[in-house]
Amino acid sequence: MKQVVLVTGAASGLGNVIAEHFAGQGHQVILSASTLEKAENAKKNSRFPENIFPLKLDISVETDFHKAVECIRQQFNQLDVLINNATVTKATPVLEISAADFDWITQVNQRGTFQACQIIGKYMAEQGYGRIINMASLAGQNGGTATGAHYAASKGAIVTLTKIFAKEFAAKGVTVNAVAPGPMESPIVHSVVPDEKIEQFIQNIPVKALGSMEFIAETCALLASPNAHFVTGATWDINGGLFMR
User: Which of 52, 81, 102, 202 lies 20 to 30 Å from 227, alpha-carbon distance?
Assistant: First the structure.
């Protein structure tokens, strides 16, 4: 079954890997970014440009979600999958985090995910089908390692929001799940862990390796499939053994 998939924060990094994975499977992928220019550049660099549809969606702006839903109604008349990937990360010592920085991280990561689930989830519920996958994090489960407390707190909130919206939409054909990655072989990890410390960082992971962004994309695709109707409210841990439960 070919689906219409919206991936937020998909111009680069993990979001782009996820978008490319779905596009490579033949799905129609709405690739969103905080600016249309970023989204259009990602389409130009895509291996599957025929399946990529750029969209400006800044998840810190509520009106952008309403505009996105209207665009989807007009252009596709359906939306099957939402991947809430967009996020901002700052590695700031807890005693140095300002109120403004805390509010900004929370607004983007936590409120952005809330509004995506609320506004786009409502549209999915009205059509009677949908798969929502939220991007949580190991940081939200163990209090953070290389990331800041504000980031960790916002990701912990996403785990809770996933359960809340899973309950809300469970009887309406819409599942809501989360994926909680640990440290990946990704630009974000290399931006917060200095090169001279990366080897020791990897040695502290039980499996002695960084995770794969492609595997995260494959996991999202599994949760996004029609056959995944019996999985909702779950958070799937992919962290190399750093957090077990």
Answer: 52
